[in-house]
Amino acid sequence: MLTELWNDAEGGFHPASAPDFLPGSALREVQLRRLRAVVARAYKNVALFRSRMEERGLTPESIQSLADIQHLPFTVKTDLRDTYPFGLFASPMSDVVRLHASSGTTGKPIVVAYTREDVEVWSEVMARTLASCGLHRGDILQNAFGYGLFTGGLGAHYGGETLGATVIPISGGNTDRQIMIIRDFNVSALCCTPSYFTHMIERARELGVDLRELPLRIGIFGAEPWTDGMRRHIEAEAGIKAYDIYGLSEIIGPGVASECSAQEGLHLFEDHFYPEIIDPETGEALPDGEEGELVLTTLSKKAMPMIRYRTRDITSLITEPCACGRTLRRMRRIGRRSDDMFIIRGVNVFPSQVEAALLAVEGTLPHYRIILTRDQGLDRMAVEVEVTPEVFSDKIKALEDVRTRLAQAIEHILGIRVELRLVEPRSLARSEGKAKRVIDRRNEGK
Q1: What's the rounded Cα separation, in Å, for the pair 87 and 146?
Q2: How far apart are CA 186 and CA 311, in angstroms?
Q3: pLDDT at site 240
Q4: What is the pLDDT of residue 446?
Q5: What is the pLDDT of residue 75?
Q6: Concatenated DSSP letters of 163-200
Q7: What is this structure's pTM?
Q8: In degrees, to the nearest 5, what angle opens at C-alpha 125 toward C-alphas 248 and 31?
Q9: Which partner from 115, 257, 272, 278 sits 20 to 30 angstroms from 202, CA to CA?
Q10: What CA dihedral angle connects 183, 215, 263 and 275, to 10 degrees?
Q11: Strand bridging mode 364-375 / 438-440
């Protein structure tokens, strides 16, 4: 019956999306059954998890309801580094068909594993992700997420093929070629980081290509926080609908949550990933609607189950029904991670706050960087922001006007004054993957 509802020509209901509309009681039954199974699997096969449960006097039989999840120990990123490379695996290597890893730029890389069943789940949730963003069979999807050890590229690739779209595995970089492919192949959807797409918009304009005149209609963006101001900029400049997706390698990669046509929060695929919101300081569970740290439990991961993994992402769960009809809970878009925060003169600062300020001021471009230094024991913050060619060409009046308005906007949002430098277009380095917004030089020379 669900297959009959799938209208290829019009992009109607896709059968992969059926779990998104499960009645609440049926969803909770699935969650509890899978939670008990994954706890038993981790207890049996992962020494670290078993010892932590035993310290609390718990066994798998202690999980009798979904509420009992709060008794289980947390998992944090350092656990993956401390047990590097395979210490959290719950499957023998003979069952592991895929390994991914982080870059390891801040120490030992994070290694994650997948069985064949895990790859099938990953393909399924990514197909649901793309379907919720409006893709369907017959769409041509240009996948500009990076392939390789980064999970983004292959996750989106398998999801697109499972959905029935035509996937172009172009990966990141070579921007001129990206734009040529969009135009010549009649690409209708594209996925990459939002910061890289803003670079593509800029380069297309330089090449005389108006993205608004092409068949491109959907952008799927993830792997880094981005603001509503950035969304408005992308949609206006490219003539597309820009959708946010969410995931992290430790859980599965992209495919944990996705926006729908309503663009009012990201639906969590709760049949595979159980969400909690906790107070990041105390670890206490918070009710739906309150802002805190997102904690995720994989309900069906076999190779490397994650039990109550602290993501460090700050959000809240939305209780109101969504206009799309999905019964899955939504979370508010993640504009900040607690790991991204830095403190200047006693004030907590997030890069997304700077982005929100500059995108609200006409004459600026969505390219900036924050430089942190220390002078005589005091932390200092400078912000470099590119301005439009029209503003930069007027060396006096326009520049000073933009500088004044931007300084006021940043001070209003942050509550502190910063050193502000307006720079010419294309003077800041462009990223072909995740953007590096903060340059921290406070400990240089020590």
Answers
A1: 27
A2: 37
A3: 98
A4: 57
A5: 98
A6: HTPEEE---S--HHHHHHHHHHTT--EEEE-HHHHHHH
A7: 0.87
A8: 90
A9: 257
A10: -60
A11: parallel
Q: Which of 145, 293, 300, 124 minimizes the C-alpha distance to 219?
A: 145
Whole-angstrom CA distances from 408 to 112, 119, 347, 423, 432 are 44, 49, 17, 18, 31
In the block, tokens 């608004």 appear at 212
The pLDDT score that the predictor gives to residue 107 is: 66
pLDDT for 337: 74
- Measured between alpha carbons, how far is 300 from 117 in angstroms, rounded to an integer? 9
Question: Distance from first CA to last CA of the chain, Å, rounded?
Answer: 67
CA distance 115 to 123: 12
User: Is omega for the bond preceding 15 within 30 degrees of 0, making it cis?
Assistant: no
Residues in the chain: 446
Tally of CB atoms within 10 A around 244:
22
AA letter at 161: E
pLDDT at 4: 34
Which residue, 97, 37, 32, 77, is CA-closest to 308? 77
Torsion angle of the four alpha carbons 152, 211, 134, 243, in this order, in degrees rounded to the nearest 10: 50
Q: Which tokens go with 166?
A: 């035509």
Task: Extract the residue ranges of the chain whose pLDDT is less than 70.
Answer: 1-12, 103-107, 395-396, 445-446
Cis peptide before 85 (omega within 30 of 0): yes
Q: Give me the pLDDT at residue 7, please.
A: 41
What domains are defined for the chain?
1-337 (3.40.50.12780), 341-440 (3.30.300.30)
Quickly tell me which residue has 């392939």 as its tokens. 147
